[in-house]
Amino acid sequence: MKVRVSDEMAVEQARAVAAALAERFEDDVTVLTTGGEELGHASYDGDGDGEFASEDAPEPEPDLDLGPTEREERLWEEIEEIESGGKEKYKKQLPEQGKKFVRDRIDLWFDDGLLFEDGKFAEFDADDVLPADGMITGAADFEGRDLHFMANDYTVKRGSMAAKGVEKFLRMQQRALKTGQPVLYLMDSSGGRIDQQTGFFANREGVGKYYYNHSMLSGRVPQICVLYGPCIAGAAYTPVFADFTIMVRGMSSMAIASPRMVEMVTGEKISLEDLGGPDVHATYSGSADLVADDEEHARELVATLVGYLPDNSDEKPPRADPVDPAKPPNGIDGVIPQEPNRGYDMLDLIDRVVDADSWFELRPEYGKEILTGFARIDGRPVGIVANQPAHRAGAIFPDSAEKAAGFIWTCDAYNIPLLYLADTPGFMAGSQVEKEGILEQGKKMIYATSSATVPKQCVVVRKAYGAGIYAMSGPAYDPESTLALPSGEIAIMGPEAAINAVYARKLAEIDDEEERKRREQELREEYREDIDARRMASEVVIDEVVPPSTLRRELENRFAFYENVEKDRPDKKHGTVL
Q1: Which residues neighbour 77 within 8 Å (Cβ) at sequence distance 6 or greater?
Q2: SS3 411
Q3: Which run of H or of E encompasses 488?
């Protein structure tokens, strides 16, 4: 029997009504509100003693002595065995190689442990010893940031990849696309297990999907890779697809093939270190952004790096408390030589502009004539692209153009404003750089600068000749401001080259050597007046000539003012310049 009562009736009253009606009519009774919500229930037990069973009767007190059963204890034993890793003989080799067991490495990285792990029981029932199939995946808190991670277990088949581990890796990447959280790859893999390749190599959801997912994640969330061992063949592509790659000296390497395979194919005998060690990739290929001294140093580098990065492309980079520069800004003009061809260290200027201890250089040994790195100005992260007159006069070579293009592209992907510090004679000329692709790499730098939609500030520090002013985000490249110091010059070419190109014949006609030198000097001075920053400001080519001692404050104000600027680019699928 169901009885409806007023919504205002108390629960205790409803229960009493239910009991009374059940006794009177010898039937089960449910009391409902007008809206259908149950307030009370009584069941007729048929013994005539006037007592009724109620569904609202209190639950029995729990047994506080309950604990883990034998079933749970067995599971803990299985988990402990999995977490102990591969065969003991392989674990004993790790100290000889200077590296940690993978779960000790994870403890180093994540002070509070993992948030969770996925796929721990992969290959649990395998005939061979394959705990977690040699790959650990999950999520963790790193420096206050939630992220996805993977880590190879080198004690399991040398960290090689097979079907179950590949599946775990792919799921981790695909979940990162959903969450928008960064991904950390702790790589120590000898590549795919050749004897099991039919289970994972060419499958639609096999190891090849790694790099598809890397491509989908690229520019969406930061991908950071740290190498702890020899990453060969397919394993070597993860670090080069990552946004940032850190190699550890004395233990890590990466190459498309092992030294044994290289010798078999080409006849070349070479060590793994010389083939793909940290020095090779930091200096020559540019594939390593940073080289760490040891495992602890690698963690320190990544901890600093993530401080400049947002979680994903929808967010802005995190701000820090403002700090004064390490060196006084009023010394900036003294850093810059009066002579346009005399070298100096651009880092001396950077130290007088950015927050103290905030300069974090990337790829420092590759393309050294351009500096690329993160810093903060008034607590705001910025990406700096600066010519380095101390190295090859600051001329732009193919490797430095490629380095700058990649850095600009990454900063733009993660909403990090850009500061260009220009002091370059332009792109290098000559047969060797033509063979190395100066035009191809130069166009990539110009393309990246053109396409960037983050706020950009260009400072002409001294000379900005030829297409160098284009690559360094000059007036035509949509900077929010083009500033110049009083030492600044913008020209097709420098005075010496220009005078030689235009007046060589007329000067040659002057027989008197002293007269010829005097006339040549006059022409240079006239030319220099024409390209001087004040002349450019007079023609409104540049926005302002800034007293050097005020440059820091000028940049603070301009980055703050343009912080939320929005830029549109043509609606298209994508450009064709890579």
Answers
A1: none
A2: helix
A3: none
Angle of CA points 369, 373, 374, to nearest 5°: 160
Q: Which residues, other chains included, contact 131 with Cβ-Cβ below 8 Å and sequence gap of 6+?
A: 81, 82, 83, 84, 85, 86, 123, 153, 156
Pairwise CA distance, residues 469 & 476, whole Å: 9
CA distance 202 to 108: 35
Distance linking the first and last C-alpha atoms of the chain: 77
Reduce the DSSP state of residue 479 to 3 states and report it: coil
496, 525 Cβ separation under 8 angstroms: no
Beta strands in 6-95 (DSSP E): 29-33, 38-42
144-145-148 Cα angle (round to 5)? 140
β-strands 360-361, 253-255 pairing:
unpaired
**Which run of H or of E encompasses 542?**
none
Give the Cβ contact number of residue 6 at 10 Å.
Answer: 9
Name, in order, each residue with C-beta under 8 angstroms of 537's C-beta and a sequence gap of 6 or more: 484, 543, 544, 545
Q: Which two tokens stand for residue 428?
A: 């290098």
pLDDT the model gives residue 210: 85
In this predicted model, what pLDDT tens digit does every residue of 345-403 receive, in sequence order? 999 999 999 999 999 999 999 999 999 999 999 999 999 999 999 999 999 999 999 99
- Assign 556 to helix, strand or coil: helix
Helix axes 102-109, 295-306, angle to 10 degrees: 40
3-state per-residue secondary structure call for 435-470: HCCHHHHHHHHHHHHHHCCCCEEEEEEEEEECCHHH
Rounded average pLDDT over 143-148 = 95
Residue 184 one-letter amino acid:
L
Residue 520 CB neighbour total at 10 angstroms: 18
Q: What is the pLDDT of residue 513?
A: 78
For 228-257, how does the pLDDT look when each residue is reduced to its tens digit (9 = 90+)? 988 888 788 899 999 999 999 999 999 998
DSSP state of 316: P
Task: Tell me the per-residue pLDDT of 30-61, one tens digit each, with 9 for 90 and over.
Answer: 878 777 778 788 877 665 554 445 545 455 56
* DSSP element (H, E) containing 412: helix 398-413
The CA distance from 553 to 163, in Å, is 56
Report the amino acid identity of residue 475.
P
**370: closest CA among 455, 286, 267?**
286
Among candidate residues 222, 220, 216, the one with its CA nearest the CA of residue 142: 222
Secondary structure letter of residue 396 according to DSSP: B
Smallest CA-to-CA distance from 383 within 348, 357, 421 is with 421
Answer yes or no: are the C-beta atoms of 285 and 125 closer than 8 Å: no
Tokens at residue 89, please?
A: 């003989």
Angle at 103 between CA 99 and CA 108, to 5 degrees: 70
Rounded to the nearest 5 percent, the helix, strand and coil shares of the chain are 40, 20, 40
DSSP 8-state secondary structure symbol assigned to residue 221:
S
Q: Assess whether pLDDT exceeds 90 at residue 118.
A: yes
The candidate with the shortest Cα–Cα distance to 247, out of 283, 273, 224, 278, is 278
Torsion of CA 427, 428, 429, 435, to 10 degrees: -100
